[in-house]
Design a protein that fits this description.
The complex is a heterodimer of chains A (377) and B (272). In chain A, helix 4 crosses helix 9, helix 7 runs antiparallel to helix 9 and helix 7 packs antiparallel against helix 12. Chain A has a four-stranded mixed beta sheet with strand order 1-2-3-4, covered by helices on one side. Chain A has 377 residues and is an alpha/beta fold. Chain A starts with 5 loop residues before the first strand and ends with a helix. In chain A, helix 1 links the parallel strand 2 and strand 3. Chain B is α/β, with parallel strands linked by helices and 272 residues long. Chain B has ten helices and ten strands. Chain B has a six-stranded mixed beta sheet with strand order 6-7-8-3-9-10, sandwiched between helices. Chain B has a four-stranded antiparallel beta sheet with strand order 2-1-4-5, with helices on one face. In chain B, strand 9 and strand 10 form a beta hairpin. The N terminus of chain B is likely disordered. The chains are: A alpha/beta (377), B alpha/beta (272). The interface between A and B is medium-sized, with 31 and 35 residues.
């Protein structure tokens, strides 16, 4: 085993010999750097300096480069520097590093106030682009649906059913469980606070209206955006990265028709179904809590529920579902197709798919609330 | 080492590769690898000598990449043991294993560059992790490595997705060489390159082997590479090494697969 690297200084007349010894290899690079940096300061002390490397046991690119760096900085400082004692098997390595041209180091970007403002401005302007991209995608999907309607044979039934299974059937347990729990919590909180006014029974009204109109569909849409929107973006994104989408296009297939239409359709069918299942699970959970915690027995609960809600509440909830599904699907597909070559880009677009999906779902819900209020539903 | 002449009978398939090669840098003994019920490698023995370029060939699906990945430790084996740099990889502690991993470099078939890092960061990554050196030295070494694989420093700030196939291979090689390893695994280094690019790459491997004193384990399908770059060739078939030796030995062999491989149309075109 060869030892630590050394660089001894030996005076020779009016010159100086720098005797390198030991292992000049990558492993010892942290020791070599200060050695060489010290020796670089000898510039100007002597007219000529020999770098004697005959005592070096092992040399690799790191060692060879540091010796070359020393020679260069000494030469630059006006010293006549020479490398001596190089053994044959290392000479080609030293020749190799001699050809290295060091580029100036890349400047680091500093964080400035204007830079931050610039970022904010770009993000705001980027929001407009998002809307344009979404409308663009909506148009492309509608055009593809039109083509499929004219040529029904080009419809991808297998793919649609496959996505329906992923998005709808496999989501039933988790959607059912979470909406059930939310129903329980709403009922418990309602009873707890209404009891002070002796208005326990109104918890049924609150639960019915809230679950059927808002919570059921909104909660399920948010879960679908997180669960399926992210999956769509990741699938399409990795296909984009591996040029699979380009391959489809060159074979004469329309990626919108083959990849996006089945996904969108599956989502548009799935969300109303899931919203319905979610609403039922929440009502069931609420009813259970009202019975066990609030003492409202099931018969009374159902009677009250029939009085409290009309079919309108139910329709309002279900009308919103496919629209929200379409928004989630559009956002997910736009983001998926925007993925570029790197893993980081895939992550960023999947994140923004979920974030934008949820944001648009909530905005849509607000728009619907205003709309239904004004038409008196 | 001459290939066994009557390799049609199964019992003589594994030629005894002199177990006494004292300077073997990789020593593979009785390796068996199985996926489900398919046995891919079946009691395979192989030695790689220090300082040589070993070309590793065999029919598609014979398990060339599997052997490479088994040696590196990415595929679990059912039986046998592997020594690299004299360290038994099964018995090695985590510390010893890391020591071995630092001394080898691997060029994956698709390059396996980190897609979210630039070329500069890709090459500097292993160095930065293992050695505590200044950013200045990191940058200089990066430029030196790029130069060694024949790339200009200008590509340093590009991302892997902005590189051509040949450049990706070169950058991946530069990354494999970043820590000045003693041993390099190349998995199909010339696949997907044009013949001129592939020829340059062979030349490059040869030059690097001379300058850095590397040992190279090269899985390849490229007859040109075998002819110009390799010191020794090992052939995989039926889960075993069916022959190992120089190019002349391969051409002299009577084994049917070797005959069709080294005397086929393409081979005649290469060797003239």
């Amino acid at each position: 085993m060869s030892g630590d690297p050394t660089l001894e200084r030996i005076a020779q007349g009016n010159g100086l010999a720098l005797c390198a010894g030991g292992s000049w290899t990558a492993r010892f690079a942290p020791l070599l750097e200060p050695l060489v940096a010290d020796a670089e300061k000898l510039t100007g002390s002597r007219p000529n300096i020999f770098i004697d490397v005959s005592q070096v046991d092992k040399l690799d690119t790191f060692g060879a480069w540091l010796i070359e760096r020393l020679r260069r900085s000494l030469t630059q400082g006006g010293v006549e520097a020479k490398i001596a004692g190089l053994s044959d098997n290392y000479s080609s390595l030293v020749d190799e590093v001699r050809r290295v041209k060091v580029a100036p180091a890349a400047g680091t970007t500093s964080v400035t106030i204007t830079g931050m403002l610039d970022q904010v401005g770009r993000s705001v302007a980027g929001f407009g682009t998002t809307i344009v991209e979404l409308v663009d995608m909506l148009g492309a999907v509608l055009a593809a649906s039109g083509r499929v309607l004219i040529h029904p044979t080009s419809f991808r039934l297998t793919s649609t059913v496959h996505h329906l299974e992923q998005v709808c059937w496999r989501a039933v347990p988790i959607v059912g469980l979470i909406t059930f729990l939310i129903g329980c919590i709403i009922a418990q909180q309602g009873i707890f606070h209404f009891r002070r006014f002796g208005a326990d029974i109104f918890v049924v009204d609150m639960l019915g209206v809230l679950v059927l109109r808002e919570i059921g569909v909104l909660l399920v849409a948010i879960m679908v955006a997180g669960r399926s929107g992210s999956a769509y973006t990741a699938e399409l994104g990795s296909m984009k990265m591996r040029e699979e989408i380009d391959a489809l296009r060159t074979m004469g297939f329309d990626p919108i028709e083959v990849l996006i239409l089945p996904r969108m359709l599956a989502l548009v069918i799935a969300l109303p179904i899931l919203a319905f299942i979610g609403a039922m699970a929440a009502l069931y959970g609420g009813g259970l809590v009202a019975w066990l915690y609030g003492g409202v027995d099931p018969e009374a609960f159902l009677l009250r529920l029939r009085d409290a809600i009309s079919i309108d509440h139910f329709t309002v909830g279900l009308i919103k579902a496919p629209v929200m599904a379409a928004v989630i699907g559009l956002v997910a597909c736009v983001e998926g197709l925007a993925v570029e070559g790197s893993a980081e880009s895939l992550g960023a677009h999947t994140t923004s798919s979920v974030v934008k999906g949820i944001f648009f779902v909530i905005v849509m819900d607000g728009v619907f609330a205003i709309f239904f209020a004004s038409i008196g539903m | 080492m001459t290939p066994v002449s009557d390799m049609t009978s199964k019992s003589t398939l594994a030629p005894e590769i002199a177990p006494e090669i004292s300077d073997a840098i990789i020593r593979v003994r009785d390796i068996t690898v199985q996926f489900g019920s398919t046995r891919v490698l079946d009691g395979l023995n192989l030695d790689v000598k220090r300082g040589e370029i070993l070309g590793f060939v065999g029919p598609s699906g014979a398990g060339k990449s599997v052997l490479t990945r088994t040696i590196i430790g990415l595929v679990p084996k059912v039986a046998g043991h592997i020594e690299v740099f004299g360290v038994d990889l099964d018995a090695a502690s985590t510390r010893e294993r890391r020591g071995v991993e630092r001394r080898w470099g691997i060029l994956f078939q698709q390059g396996a560059l980190f897609s979210s890092l630039t070329v500069r960061q890709n090459i500097q990554f292993p160095v930065r992790e293992y050695l505590n050196v200044s950013q200045r030295l990191l940058d200089e070494i990066m430029v030196a490595k790029l130069g060694m694989v024949g790339l200009r420093p200008e590509v340093a700030d590009r991302f892997p997705s902005e590189l051509s196939g040949g450049m990706i291979k070169r950058v991946a090689l530069a990354r494999a060489l970043a820590l000045d390893p003693e041993l390099v695994f190349l998995d199909e280094p010339t696949s997907g390159l044009d013949p001129i690019g592939a020829g340059d790459f062979d030349e490059l491997v040869r030059t690097l082997q001379r300058t850095l004193g590397l040992t190279v384990f090269m899985v390849t399908h490229d007859l040109d590479s075998l002819y110009t770059a390799c010191d020794r060739i090992a052939v995989l078939g039926n889960g075993k090494i069916i022959a190992a030796g120089s190019m002349a030995d391969m051409q002299a062999s009577q084994h049917p697969w070797l005959r069709s491989y080294f005397h086929g149309k393409r081979a005649r075109a290469v060797m003239g």
